[in-house]
Each structure stands twice: as structure tokens, then as C-alpha cells.
Amino acid sequence: MKFADYVKLSSNERTLIFRKWVEYTEAPKRNKQVLCKTWYRWLREDFNDKRSQNMVKKKEIKETKETKIEIARKAITKKYGEGVISYLGDHEDLEIDAISTGCLELDAALGVGGFARGRLYEVYGPNSSGKSTLALSVCMQALKRDMNVAYVDAEHSLDPKLVRNMGTAVGVNPDSIDLVQAFTGDENLEIAEILMKSGEVDVLVVDSVSALLPKGMAEGEISDNYIGLLARLMSKACLKLTPTANRTNTLLIFINQIRHNIGKWGDDRTPTGGEALSFYATGRIKVEGGESKKSRIIDSKGVVVGHTSEFQVVKNKLAAPWRTAGIELIYGVGYNFSGEIINLGVDFGIIDQKGKWYYYKEEKYDGRDNLTAAFIDDQDMYAELGSKVKSVLGLGDE
């Protein structure tokens, strides 16, 4: 029997033949031992050879599978475009690009330094609490970074003077903002989608959800029943605009009003437009202030000139929720950035306060107004204080 035929037999058949061969051979005992060793070596080589063949087959199968999945990936990319499918590992070190809100404490509360680009945010609260001011502040910070901004004014109530004053406060010209004021909500949202798909809009604000007039309501009578029209409109809008924002890396902000939910136990105030927006939003910020006398800012003449806007991060997919922040809002001007630096500086021990006196390094200032005036005269000191406050908040140094 040839060895090639021998290795094709089963293990039991091999053992039986080998034993008979050794038993009936007339070779001396020493030669039998040599033959046994030789056959053992052949069997071991045969085993190793088969194991190698199995490993090669497994490798070929694996390579074939990898080839097929690569073909599938290429087909998906060709049909649906770049970025539709990618490796999870490609996103491990991807930094989230966030646009500051202008309020340092809120930037820290959001966990990523502001509102993340390519995401959807909802800003809601009672009337005159500072919702639009927060959205406009984000727009001003975007303009500081030479970004393109679009503002959908569905309420038709945007104050150009306020926008320019806020731009002056941060050193930008807001005249380049694209202002959209269509009649129906369907038209406003379609225009928003077109602007986003251009890939050139970095920030888009919709002000507000409650003012988005559904087409069916616009074409009907005031006395007709329109239950659920706005909720259906917002559900469709979120379905289309959320992936568009992600692909174009556009920050999408929806401002929303609140209504009283009659018969609800506890806090009966709820945002309008159904539940879709709250589900799709990466973050939801509740804005309050101005309603209580405690939050109002009164000047030396006893006139109310502003209030403290209080923020609560109700939902946050990028960091822990339920964090709070606050900043002074001056009517007709915008946020009091220097006042925030002073408040946080005192809280963090960077600025010493004794009574009405403020101490920083070797200088002392009689009252808050004098320290604010010193910021105007000494921009280096203001920048230095801002850097120290940001460092404590974990926002780094800009």
C-alpha cells in the first residue's frame, strides 16, 4: 500500500494496518522501532498538513466574507452617497464642533461648550423670558467665526435694532443674516430645508414652532377645527430636517412657546407642536425669567431695564442633563457679558468682593459699575478674567 492511499484511511483503519504490518514483518526488533518512528513522523506531518490546509480554508473563507462586505459597502456608498456607511472606529476621536451660546455658564452646563453643529435643539419657555435672545446670541457667536446664519421669523416680530445692538456687543455685523418670513409654516420649513441642503448654512433658527401656520389652516376658516395639524407638520419636519442637518453639519434651533395643559397635575405648562420635536432634539433648554420680581434688574431710577434669564438643560444627549445656568439680559441690548464675568469671578474666588468694593490683583473698584467701566478701558484685563473663568468652567482658553 502506498502512503498516499494510507493517509486517506480513517484513524482506526490506519492503526489496524500499521500494527499488522509491524507484527508480521520479519525485520529485526531494532528495525521495527525505526519503522514505528518513521510512521509516527509521517502521521504527525500528515496531521500538521491537514491542520494547515484547514487554516488556509478558514482564512480564504474570511477573506471572501470581507471581500463581499467591502463590495456591499461600495455599492451602498455609490447609491446613497459618501458618509452613509462608515466604521464606528472612525468616529472615536471625532471632536464635536460646538457654537457658544454667549453665556459661559450655559456652555459649561451643555457639556460640549455650546450647541453642537449637525444637531437639533429646542429652546422653550414662557413669553418674554429670553428665548429669541438666546438663539440670536448663538447666531452672533457663529458670525464671529465667519459662519453663515439663517433666521426663519415665523412670528414676524424680529427687532432689527436689537439684532444690531447684539452684534455690536460682540463686534460683528449681522446684516448678512438670511431672514425668512414666509406666510405658512409649510413654506417656511421648505425654505429652511433648501437653505440647509445648500451646505452653506451653518446655523438656522426657526422662531417659533407655535407660529408655523399649517397650510390646511391657512386655506380654511378661523372657525374650523384644526386639531393635530401643527403636530403632524412638526413630525414631518423633524423627519426631514434632522438627517439634513446632520449631513450638512448645520445647527438647527427651534424656538417654542408653552401652553397650559388643562387638567394636568403639577406643572401644567407644555411646549406646542406635539412630541416629535422633544424626541428628535439633541438638547432641550428651558428658559425662564422676568415673571418674578426677584429676577428683574432695576436701575438707579427704579426702572426695570432687564431680568436674569435662567436656563435649565432638560434634555442633553451629549452630557448630563438637568444642569442650570443664568445670565443678565438687558432689554434692547442683549446679554450682560461683563456682568457674567464679574459674578462668576466672585463665585470662583478670582475677584474678591467686600461689601460694594471689588478687588482684583492690586486694584480695587468702588461698585460693580466702576469695575464694568474698567473692562471697557482695559480690554486686556477683561480678556484675562474671561480666560480664568473659562478655565475654571472647563471651557479652555479661546
Automatic annotation (TrEMBL):
GO biological process, one term: DNA repair
GO cellular component: cytosol
Single GO MF descriptor: single-stranded DNA binding
Family to which this protein belongs: Belongs to the RecA family.
Domain RecA family profile intervals: 95-258, 265-340
Keywords from the UniProt entry: ATP-binding, DNA recombination, DNA-binding, Nucleotide-binding
Name of the featured protein: RecA family profile 1 domain-containing protein
Cleavable signal peptide: none
SUPFAM superfamilies: P-loop containing nucleoside triphosphate hydrolases, RecA protein, C-terminal domain
Organism: marine sediment metagenome
